[in-house]
Amino acid sequence: MEEQNTELYLFDIEGTTTPIEFVHKVLFPYSVQNFITFFSETSAETGFAEELILASKNETEYTEEVSDSAESLTKFCKYLVSKDRKLGILKEIQGRIWKKGYESGELKSTIFPDVPPFLERIRKSGKRAAVYSSGSVEAQILIYRYCEAGDLTVYFESYFDTAVGGKKESTSYTKIAEKLSLLPGSILFFTDIKEEADAASEAGVRSIIVSRPGNHPQAEHDYRVIKNFEEILS
Question: Which protein family is named in the record (predicted)?
């Protein structure tokens, strides 16, 4: 079985531990609604404007010139969200917006009910757990800290975002293994995306596809598929 040789369980978030619906119907709309307030309140932080203006040069479909005004930056960020872009600067901005929402009580994340018991079983077995998501590390921590099941951050030792590379790039998983001082083969990665599993496997990291309600259909593959974590370590 995959879990017998596993030292660390690496978790994707969206569609794996958290419903896609929560991300796309709660988190993304919340950030869209609050971009204008964010840019109005952080106008002094020109780094955000500079990075977004630079990023706009690569968006050939976006025909408007992006300026440093709150309105222009807001409009461009809404466009990026609509295209589901994984830009680090966008994720950082969203993370800051969500932080305020979580801390104020406006936001509370949804986690699949089988996740907390599985994390507890991992801890009791002496194994390790970490997270790798396209959302910023800050956003990842917020999802697990402010969830309906309570604070789950106690179960994770590390968080990784696209600073280590894209999730469909094999080198990203190599870097994660190196940072964790583990052999790639001792890591078991849970994801809902075949291409991410392919990239992990190319790096020597073993993968399992998680099939949750609302997840997108995947191309044919030979990976083990589970519907919930009760199928692991049971």
Answer: Belongs to the HAD-like hydrolase superfamily. MasA/MtnC family.
